[in-house]
């Protein structure tokens, strides 16, 4: 590490920005959120900088003089004239200021980080000037992980810090703050109920005891496979979870987003297997929540779509355990994206039907005649093993044999495979290409064999 990161107190100090163009404006923009005095050194200012002067937020001098760098903690130089920049840097150094010359890293005392601002929580990402684009990319990832309301809650915690110190012995303070930031108070604040969050914290301080942790369950959709298709809420639940029960279709990279010390329990759920029957899973997630633990039941796709969410919701509610559903991107959406072919299309398909191709033993098969009407995209989940029977039943229901069928296996994953065929050839095409579940069958009633050929050529 060639540079040392630290946060400077800016109140009552001066920041000098030399230059009047776009680069100088970018640097001034960074300083605006601090309490520093801003002094602009330039004869001409771009409209943004001129606006700062007009508003009184910054002062302007045309050239640097003997007093320009008095009480200066930081200087940004962006004039575009190398000799002038070096002369200005010498003046700033003589006054004891830290200098940053834009796009000349070899002459910089410090580098401008990419900043994630949740004031008073601030995250700075630096690459020592080597890869600023990478720094901005990392900033984007962190932005998605930190709740937009985090700063306001941290500020509230700061205002209560003295009250907490007076109410709790040092040994208990840590547990209070862990409860505050990981428990229901922050959840209330995150939901926009700031007053309720504040009252919850103040009640705990008055009682001189943080409430006992109450367990809760979240049924979280892991999406179709790729970890960057998870929702931000899903990521937050993974990072807060004490224990995660996950299915065989959940990508290992998704689990890497979880807390390192969270327990992870594989619950299989393979079609035809019974090592993890649903009743056993229901009992386990409820038992863990009753211990006061935060439980995530991680399911591929969306929990509400063929995800057996009803059984787990019922078990949690019967036990009096708080439970919520966190939606995920379902396989049909991922398959359509993989094919670059929307599920609905104006003038062509005005309906999209999601149906399972694998029902429970003894349950009736879907009523294909009512589901597969012309102009409908029929999305059949887990239908590969019964493709022959499904194709025959659809044709018996009146769907033409030349109807287009698009198949996507492992949508969004590195092993993704695609196939375009027609209904009458579906079983043979699946066998020929060696496609197995997990796969989605998209039957586009109304699309012809000629259309299937065009799709096959495109992709």
Question: Which key terms come to mind for this protein?
Answer:
single chain; 459 residues; alpha/beta; Rossmann fold; Cobalt-precorrin-4 Transmethylase, domain 1; 4 domains; 5-stranded parallel β-sheet; 18 helices; 38% helix; globular
Describe this structure as you would to a colleague:
The protein has 459 residues and is of the alpha/beta class. It folds into 4 domains: 14-112, Rossmann fold (3-Layer(aba) Sandwich); 150-207, no CATH class; 216-329, Cobalt-precorrin-4 Transmethylase, domain 1 (3-Layer(aba) Sandwich); 332-458, Tetrapyrrole methylase, C-terminal domain (Methyltransferase, Cobalt-precorrin-4 Transmethylase, Domain 2), CATH 3.30.950.10. 38% of the residues lie in helices and 19% in strands. It has helices spanning 22-32, 47-55, 82-94, 132-145, 150-159, 161-167, 170-182, 184-190, 194-207, 232-240, 252-255, 278-290, 309-318, 331-339, 368-371, 387-396, 426-433, 449-458; strands spanning 14-18, 37-41, 58-61, 72-77, 98-101, 114-118, 121-125, 216-221, 243-246, 263-266, 294-299, 323-326, 351-356, 376-381, 404-409, 417-422, 439-444. It has a 5-stranded parallel β-sheet with strand order 3-2-1-4-5, with helices on both faces. β15 and β16 (417-422) form a beta hairpin. The longest helix is centred in the first third of the chain and has 14 residues, at 132-145. The two termini are 47 Å apart.
């Amino acid at each position: 590490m060639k540079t040392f990161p630290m946060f400077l107190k800016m109140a009552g100090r001066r920041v000098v920005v030399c230059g009047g163009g776009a680069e100088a404006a970018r640097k001034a923009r960074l300083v605006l959120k601090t309490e520093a005095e801003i002094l602009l050194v330039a004869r001409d200012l771009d409209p943004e900088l001129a606006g700062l002067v007009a508003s009184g937020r910054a002062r302007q001098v045309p050239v640097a003089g003997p007093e320009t760098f008095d009480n200066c903690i930081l200087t940004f130089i962006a004039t575009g004239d190398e000799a002038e920049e070096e002369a200005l840097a010498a003046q700033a150094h003589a006054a004891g200021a830290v200098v940053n010359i834009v796009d000349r890293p070899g002459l910089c005392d410090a580098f401008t980080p990419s900043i994630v601002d949740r004031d008073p929580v601030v995250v700075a990402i630096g690459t020592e000037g080597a890869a600023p684009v990478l720094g901005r990319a990392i900033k984007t990832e962190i932005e998605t992980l930190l709740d937009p309301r985090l700063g306001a809650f941290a500020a509230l915690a700061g205002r209560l810090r003295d009250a907490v110190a007076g109410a709790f012995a040092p040994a208990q303070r840590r547990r209070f703050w862990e409860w505050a930031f990981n428990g229901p108070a922050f959840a209330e604040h995150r939901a926009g109920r700031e007053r309720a969050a504040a009252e919850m914290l103040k009640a705990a301080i008055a009682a001189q005891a943080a409430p006992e942790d109450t367990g809760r369950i979240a049924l979280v959709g892991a999406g179709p496979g790729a970890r960057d298709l998870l929702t931000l809420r899903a990521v937050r639940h993974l990072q807060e979870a004490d224990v995660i029960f996950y299915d065989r279709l959940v990508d290992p990279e998704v689990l890497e987003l979880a807390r390192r010390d969270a327990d992870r329990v594989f619950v299989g759920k393979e079609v035809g297997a019974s090592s993890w029957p649903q009743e056993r899973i229901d009992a386990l997630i409820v038992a863990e929540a009753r211990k006061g633990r935060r439980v995530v039941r991680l399911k591929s796709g969306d929990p509400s779509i063929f995800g057996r969410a009803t059984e787990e919701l019922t078990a949690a509610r019967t036990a009096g355990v708080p439970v919520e559903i966190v939606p995920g991107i379902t396989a049909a959406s991922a398959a359509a994206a993989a094919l670059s072919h929307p599920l609905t299309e104006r003038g062509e398909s005005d309906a999209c039907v999601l149906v399972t191709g694998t029902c429970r033993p003894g349950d009736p098969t879907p009523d294909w005649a009512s589901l597969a009407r012309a102009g409908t995209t029929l999305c059949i989940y887990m239908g590969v093993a019964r493709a022959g029977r499904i194709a025959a039943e659809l044709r018996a229901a009146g769907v033409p044999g030349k109807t287009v069928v698009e198949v996507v296996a492992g949508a969004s994953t590195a092993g993704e495979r695609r196939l375009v065929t027609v209904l009458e050839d579906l079983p043979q095409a699946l066998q020929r290409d060696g496609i197995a579940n997990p796969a989605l069958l998209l039957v586009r009633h109304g699309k012809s064999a000629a259309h299937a050929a065009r799709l096959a050529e495109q992709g």
